[in-house]
Amino acid sequence: MTPLRVEIRALRKSKGLSQQALADAVGTGRETVNRLENGQQKSVDLDVLEGLARVLGVSPGALLAHADEQQGRRPARRKRTR
Fold it and tell me: Does pTM surpass 0.90?
């Protein structure tokens, strides 16, 4: 299992949510949540990531940072624009 998958599943279960309940709260389909948790979907749209983070009570960056740390990588930094 990849860390992001584990994180989404663990947070969802800790909140007592089914995949369908999480999907409904985020405004996406249960299939999307299922594919993310099972590693069948390797990327996630920003609006879905933000919704997952909001419902699960974490920041979007925290979900991604946790996944990067588990894989021994540093989270990507945004370039500063002036």
Answer: no
